Amino acid sequence: MEYASTFTVESKVAPGVVFTLRRMTKRLRDDLEDEQEVSAEKMRPLIQEIQPLEKEVFDLINKKESVPPDKWIAYQLHMRKIRRIERQETDPRAIRFVVLSVTGYSIDGAPATVDSLIANAPDDLYDEISNAVKHEIGLDVAARGNSESPSTSAAAEGGTGGDAANAEQTAKTTTEVV
User: Fold this and answer.
1) For residue 153, which of 95, 76, 99 has the smallest C-alpha distance?
2) Tens digits of per-residue pLDDT, 18-65?
């Protein structure tokens, strides 16, 4: 029997691009968790602060009641802070840890590296790689199940928001993996 410690993923958004990922084991997940501890420490107080507010907001949404604008804005601001830490720190660390190589893509005339993709890849390709990494480490939507509330970031980004109908529709249509 032979075990392959890596596997390849062919890009759907950039045909011809292939990235090689490390198969995660419990030990590797532990190593990644250790590498991400500083970011986790930054997020812990934000998550603790947002939990009661999140419960209140989503209870109102589930009851199809209006969410007071001050609570909606506070919730969105906290989520934005958490997402920024994820985008700027935890996601790039996870990508560096799991993605071993990229072939078939160049940036500014040079073959792409993991670091150059993190810094300069188009959003759709970066998101595809990030989602593949999250899937491999067990943080994608399917793996998380219902352990996390849906994103409702449209209101804070200038969309309509604040009432249960708009928030519920936003939550249903948001596919961002946070």
Assistant:
1) 76
2) 999 999 999 999 999 999 999 999 999 999 999 999 999 999 999 999
| Residues 93/39, Cβ–Cβ less than 8 Å | yes
Is 178 part of a structural domain of the chain? no
Cα–Cα distance, 163 to 66 (Å, whole number): 4
In sequence order, the 6+-apart residues with CB closer than 8 A to the CB of 109 are none
Planar angle of CA 165, 173, 72, nearest 5 degrees: 50
Q: DSSP secondary structure string, 59-106?
A: HHHHTT-PPPHHHHHHHHHHHHHHHHHIIIIIHHHHHHHHEEEEES-E
Count up the domains in the chain and report the number.
1
Instruction: Report the predicted TM-score, pTM, of the whole model to 2 decimal places.
Output: 0.70
Please state, in angstroms and rounded to a whole number, the distance separating the CA atoms of residues 110 and 74: 43
CA-CA distance, 82 to 42, in Å (whole number)? 9
User: Torsion over CA of 107, 113, 118 and 124, rounded to 10 degrees?
Assistant: 60
Residue 1 resides in a domain:
no
| pLDDT tens track for 161-177 | 444 444 433 333 332 33
Whether residue 137 is contained in a domain is answered as yes
Give the pair of three-digit tokens for residue 152: 């409702």
Cβ contact 164:67 at 8 Å: yes
